[in-house]
Amino acid sequence: MNLTPTHRVYGLGAILLASLFICSRNFSRVGDPSFLVPLAVASVAYLLAIREFFFAPTFPRHVIVTGLVLAALWHLQFLRMPPGPDDDIHRYVWDGRVQRLGYDPYVVVPSDPAFSDLHTSETRTLNHPDLPSPYLPGAELFFRAVTTIHESTFALKVAFVFCDFAILLVLLDILRRSRRGMHWVLAYAWHPLLATEVAGSGHIDIVGALLLLVSFAALGRQWRAVAAVAFGLAVAVKLLPIVLLPLYWKRVRIRDGILAIIVVGSLYVPFLKGEWIPIGSLGTYVQSFRFNAPVFATLERVAAPQFVAALAVLVGFLIAILMRIRSPALSSEAFAWPMAGSLLLRALGLPWLLPGWVTLLEYGSVAMAGAIILLRRLARPAVPRCSTDGVE
């Protein structure tokens, strides 16, 4: 029987659903074959789905709706699973809690006996308890806001899943305005690491990804102030997007940039102590934390880690400058490649040694959206693009 693209996509979606359900049942054993094998199966199914998206210009509406429902099902399954005992999300709960109790997360060290009474059952197992927080003020205030509503890892995971859902809405708007196939939203929604890292472990990166995607969408609509402020907030959550700064040259006005600086600066005010900008243990992070970073490790043999970290930022900046010069029109791939270049040189790699194609997509929606639309353009060169005056 000759299967249609729709039937093949439905079949791949079913494989993703089954394999990710098995992954979620073994989420407490992330290093075991019982988790890694179904995750690998899900990854292969995902790649095959991307292949189907390339070769079919459009899909029926019911395929997109069903695909999003399937993604919601496996996200909910991971959401039900408790995070690992040393996942970063326990630090998020701690940082939000100490802020609400009147302490500074950039000063308080979780392992300090003087603060032992501040711990809860969910914060006693946080990783690197001998260090203060390494997170930026935008992230810290997000932790405080969520833990004010409910202080738990589950509440934070729910907040991250809501951000994930918001990204889907923004992506659908971008695809609609750029007249691209709406089925490409599934290339984001079906990514296996979104389920494991956002709904499962819970990572703050998704908040920065949402803000950066909002900034990109606002540029396409000529909402320059919104674009500038959202970009500033994204940088205040995760530093990585700073490499995209050249892409905003002459796309936002000077007063928009000043507004963004004021908004971002206001986030630092609650943490200012004396003359120094609070960075917590960020310096120690750069100096000491290493995982799955072969390029960084190689360069570190001949240069100081601070130099290699600065080089990663410089590479991203240079790529962004090149993309800005070569592409006067607003293009999503220009937002992907500078971050990809910086990610290649960073000190911490992916949580699993999956195929290298995932590396470009790690930061979340913007790198993913850029890769999606870039590949889409390669498949269909005549696709219209967004200009600085809106969608053409």
Question: What is the succession of H and E elements?
Answer: HHHHHHHHHHHHHHHHEE
Tell me the β content. Answer: under 5%
Task: Determine the structural class based on helices, strands and strand pairing.
Answer: mainly alpha
Radius of gyration: 21 Å
Major sheet details? 2 strands, antiparallel
Number of domains: 1
The spatial strand order of the largest sheet comes to 1-2
Shape: globular
- N- to C-terminal separation? 42 Å
Query: What is the number of helices?
Result: 16
Q: Percent range for helical residues?
A: 55-70%
Low-confidence parts, pLDDT < 50 over ≥5 residues? 349-392
Count all strands and give the number.
2
Instruction: Give the overall pLDDT as a whole number.
Output: 80
Question: What does it look like?
Answer:
The chain contains 16 helices and 2 strands. It has helices at 5-25, 33-55, 61-80, 89-100, 137-149, 153-177, 185-189, 192-201, 205-220, 224-237, 254-268, 282-288, 294-300, 305-326, 333-344, 365-379, and strands spanning 386-387, 390-391. The radius of gyration is 21 Å and the shape is globular. The longest helix has 25 residues, at 153-177. The chain is mainly α. Helix content is 60%, strand content 1%. A two-stranded antiparallel ribbon has the order 1-2. The protein has one domain (5-391). The two termini are 42 Å apart.
